Amino acid sequence: MKKTIIALVMGVGVMTVLQAEELLPKIAAKTVVEMKKDQKVDFQKIKIDDKTKYTIVFHGTLDGAECIEENPRMSLTLMPRAWVHDKVFDFLPKMRLEFFDTDGKSIGISNQISLPFRKHHKYSTTFYPLPNAASVALRVQAGGSTKSFKVDSMSFAETKDQGAININPVVNDSGLYDYSAWKAFSPGAGLIKTKNGKVGFNAAYGSFGAKFPLKANTVYVGHGFGPVVGYAVTLKLQMFDSKNKMIEDVKIYSKKGVEFTTPKNCVSGGIHIRSILLDEVRINEIPKGGLK
């Protein structure tokens, strides 16, 4: 029988979980954390490496508020968005990740999404930490119209090998509701079921992927493909320096792959895509001596 932990502060409140390392296994095995209207649960910071890809998974059950089961267009609320000044979907539960440096100072927030499913649903978020992050903390917050939001079966771990440096390279593998690989969306963009029954990402007229670390002066291969669905077709890898300035890009719309060498001041990369219904995009380092 599962044990339920209820946030005791009524209304707007925060329950700080002091021992995340102990709590996560308990949630996975037998514990449910329940939040009422506007309550927040802050999980303890977990040490991370800013060059490592991680995945956090939990299941959620919602009582109250309009849900995706009644309104499928609410899938848009699963797209990552800025935490600050975001009031549009406050009636729904949501999550975010906050990153901290070695001194414990907050350096940024990412991966805010709503949690819009009424029925017991598996939420999965894959991410790279912000540059120079030494720890991360998860916050889950009930919405303004939430009677009850329950979280259970939580896990946090390094992401299993996806066969690429970038996040969720094969769109169909991560499903119809996981937008971890993307950070900015053109109007009309989104994950859709294609004619062959698989999931693809409709980039519409210009969408951008979540950034991932790259090494300077290093040879990589990039490839991506999917049906063309508009004009000015674009699939590029953009490369950035430590000040987040875009310093170079390379076209990677190819099934065979395009080799390129990163600039001397490159620290990260991100995908820019337009007018493609994306099936797959991969960035991989070519080891010295070439691919076998």
What does this structure look like?
The structure is a single chain. The strands form five sheets. Strands 2, 4, 5, 7, 8 and 10 form a six-stranded mixed beta sheet that branches. Strands 12, 15, 16, 18, 19 and 21 form a six-stranded antiparallel beta sheet that branches. This protein starts with a strand and ends in a 7-residue tail after the last strand. Helix content is 5%, strand content 44%. The protein is mainly β and 292 residues long.
Shape: globular
Which parts are unreliable, with pLDDT below 50 for 5 consecutive residues or more? 1-23
Q: Which range best describes the helical content: under 10%, 10-25%, 25-40%, 40-55%, 55-70% or over 70%? A: under 10%
The count of DSSP E runs of length 2 or more, i.e. the number of strands, is 23
User: Given this structure, which CATH class of the largest domain is correct?
Assistant: Mainly Beta
Total of helices: 2
- How would you state the average pLDDT, rounded? 88
Number of domains: 2
